[in-house]
User: What shape does this take?
Amino acid sequence: MKRSSADIIREYGPFPGVDRINGVTFDGQQVWFASGDKLNALDPAEGKVLRSIEVASHAGTAFDGRHLFQIAEDRIHKIDPKTGRVLATIPAPGGGGDSGLAWAEGTLWVGQHRGRKIHQIDPDTGAILRTIESDRVVTGVTWVDDELWHGTWEGDESDVRRIDPQSGEVLERIEMPEGTGVSGLESDGGDRFFCGGGGSGKIRAVRRPKRTAARK
Amino acid sequence: MDSLITAAARALATGDPLGALKRVALRGDAPALALRGIAMAQLGELVRAKALLRSAARAFGPKETLARARCVVAEAEIALVSRDLGFAPKALDAARVALESHGDRVNAAHARHLEVRRLLLIGRLDDAEHALAGLDPALLPPALRAAHELVVAGIAMRRLRTRVARAALERASRAARQANIPALKVEVETAALALDTPAARLIARGEERLLRLEDVEALLASKALVVDACRYVVRYARNVVPLATRPVLFALARALGEAWPSDVPRSTLLAQAFRARHADESHRARLRVEIGRLRTALKSLADVSATERGFALAPRVAHDVVVLAWPVDEEHAAVLAFLADGESWSSSALALALGASQRTVQRALDQLAAEGKVQSYGRGRARRWMARPLPGFTTTLLLPGPLPSD
Assistant: This one.
């Protein structure tokens, strides 16, 4: 397993009226973050919130190329980012203990916080397709290239880790500085992760380690 | 935090404990237990709240120090508000240290406050003052600042420092308005009211008038010899002669003080001090003995001189002699006099001091408690009694914020 310390490239926020970051996603241009009763679109270059959608947003956020998915209480809402309308609703697999959401290849991946699990679910029905066990609290899930990453946060310790999507084995860890937690995780598809900072109200851009020749 | 915990915490923060409960009612994980505990506390279900917070503290993992410490603080606050002082101060102190070392200064300060309020509640004024000195209210959010100033006012009022108390109450009022918690505003107003209601009655040269706490303070700083029937002492400036355990001597002193500068006939003294209707020779002999004892007791403050028909008080330095009494004559003035020291008393200690039976004292306490003039805490043998509530005893819960680790 590879270990490194997080290289925090940039910090965004805290933003006015935002107490906490519950989830983050990236639509190719804007970072969307969940703040409880809103989804906010942040321009990562300017560091400014461009617009907000009024919608319950208590945990993970994801983007499938057209829609936003947002965990609220014990449901997952599919939201039209243009109008803010909720188009569909499915049950969340953790029954409300959910934290962290990612879209990959036609399915949703949902972190189950204290259940220390990641579920792959059918985005139309919410049916669980399979479950990966983790040994840590899950606070954010993302896919980048063929890599499954998730955030953990227990007490003062927090990291971003890459796990084997089959076995759940931890392959790589990026440790966050003490007292810096990860709530919500999304990759920009390149060399950056966007990490929600929970009650700090901040979003942090963390560098994704460069791939060396031998790739898992 | 996970989704429902976040939703429940938001509901709690907006004053909707039922909404919070609805979301986590069926969950037994640590953050859910903590939120349920806080919600139950806000709903006034203190016993259930305490149990939930205790199990939450146990359920949080070994790395979730902050969350556990906040549970301990919340539990301590509930214990304090429900006047259950069996809560271990050590656990609270350990939680405070943990919060401080993890940079949660606000909740650390809150923990310290709870300790100070506990000390004030059990009548340890010096310790309360000492612990309060280590706190900087400027660092606190408005609600905690209001609670802080109430404690300062409470100590000042017990110590008869009305100007300090008034200033603290003004600051408390500002902070409570800022915090915008209705219950807290009411508590500050009630406390301020205590400063303006008559605290005592002055009897001087045959006339009576009511005094506020401020006037009492001024009187005690004046050049008058005060026969204080609120505390059963005779005092001049800093010189205090306690007579609480000597009711006959005090009754004589009070009769002499009320009559000053005139003398008091023997028959009146006998009637007042011994409740003797017909004075015979043995009564007269006993009066002589008691006057002799009073003379010895008051030696430094006044002489008790014999006159043709009785006795008169002759202060050594004081220009004036006055009697300070309860605003209305209390049936159980003697019990209240002991409690007026601000300390906490067991009923057996009161019985001992009063020379009365436990049963009599208990009856008096029960009646005074029913009239809201005294308060007790603890149960069974550990039960303690104090004078009527003073500021510093907010019953508003100012619980620590959302509990889960992030």
Remarks:
- The two ends of chain A are 11 Å apart (CA to CA).
- Chain A is about 0% helix and 55% strand.
- The mean pLDDT of chain A is 93.
